[in-house]
From TrEMBL:
Residues 1-50 are annotated as: Disordered. This is ArsR family transcriptional regulator. InterPro entries: ArsR-like_HTH (IPR011991), Carb_Metab_HTH_regulators (IPR050313), HTH_ArsR_DNA-bd_dom (IPR001845), WH-like_DNA-bd_sf (IPR036388), WH_DNA-bd_sf (IPR036390). Residues 49-94 form the HTH arsR-type domain. It comes from the Bacteria. The lineage of its organism: Bacteria, Bacillati, Actinomycetota, Actinomycetes, Kitasatosporales. Coiled coil: none annotated.
């Protein structure tokens, strides 16, 4: 499906697909675990684990001062500041002035650290369930299935411009590859390759689908995407497999098209 996702990466938390409602986040990032486990790797793993505990403590308790975090986690304030600096550098937390209720004491209010929207998104979310619930509610109404199909087509049309530009500026024989690159830029890990009989066409493979759980219940999302690929490439295409259906990859067969047919699609508006 055609909607990208972003997550928190780098020195701090992993992206939302890797971070779940655990006390300690899974270890991912620049250092990989090895059977031997060098001291440097063990140190880096411990750093990530502690950093994730700091972020989790802010999630559980709300905006917190350095002193509060140090007391809750059993760390020195210097250590907490170091981890907060790293998390702030990754866009996971931000510093704010602490709100004061009642009479304000002399001096500057204490600084607290809160999760950013990006940092909060790295923890468990219920977006899939919310989307599925909303579409199910629509489906249960009169004309609901037609409304969902219309929504799916409108969703694709709203995202069409970048894909259309990529395809229409490519040479006819490179348009499937251009579409794959545009999809990959949105997080779909797409590739183009020759079909088992290359003279007959190509296969567009999407190795990731961020809405697979919803599309499993509402195949109209996949159908609208297939229709869009056909309109964009100017030829009938065939969806061979989908992640939503339990396959490992979304695979679309694209037959070879003549250069004249390809040129005729130029300048057409999104459906």
């Amino acid at each position: 499906m055609t909607q990208g996702t972003t997550g928190v990466t780098g020195r701090g938390l992993p992206g939302p697909d890797e971070l779940r409602n655990n006390g300690v986040v899974k270890n991912v990032g620049e250092v990989r675990e090895t059977p031997t486990g060098s001291p440097q790797e063990e140190l880096a793993t411990g750093e990530r684990s502690t950093r994730n505990r700091v972020a989790r403590s802010i999630l559980d308790h709300g905006p917190s001062t350095v002193a509060e975090l140090a007391e809750r986690l059993g760390l020195t304030q210097a250590a907490v500041r170091r981890h907060l600096d790293a998390l702030a550098g990754d866009g996971v937390v931000e510093a704010r002035e602490q709100r004061v209720y009642g009479t304000r004491t002399r001096g500057r209010p204490a600084k607290v650290f809160a999760l950013t929207d990006c940092g909060r998104d790295a923890f468990d979310q219920s977006y899939d369930k919310l989307a599925a619930d909303a579409l199910r509610w629509i489906a249960d109404r009169e004309g609901g299935n037609e409304a969902i199909a219309a929504f799916a087509r409108a969703r694709i049309a709203a995202q069409a411009s970048a894909y259309r530009e990529a395809v229409e500026t490519a040479a006819p024989e490179q348009r499937t590859e251009a579409l794959a690159k545009a999809l990959s830029a949105d997080g779909y890990a797409a590739t183009a390759r020759s079909a088992p009989h290359p003279q007959k066409g190509e296969q567009l493979c999407q190795h990731h689908c961020p809405v697979a759980h919803v599309a499993e219940q509402f195949p109209q999302l996949c159908e609208a995407e297939t229709e869009f690929f056909a309109e964009l490439l100017g030829t009938h295409v065939q969806r061979l497999a989908t992640i939503a259906h339990g396959d490992g990859v979304c695979t679309t067969f694209i037959p070879k098209i003549s250069h004249n047919a390809s040129a005729s699609t130029a300048g057409r508006n999104p459906a």
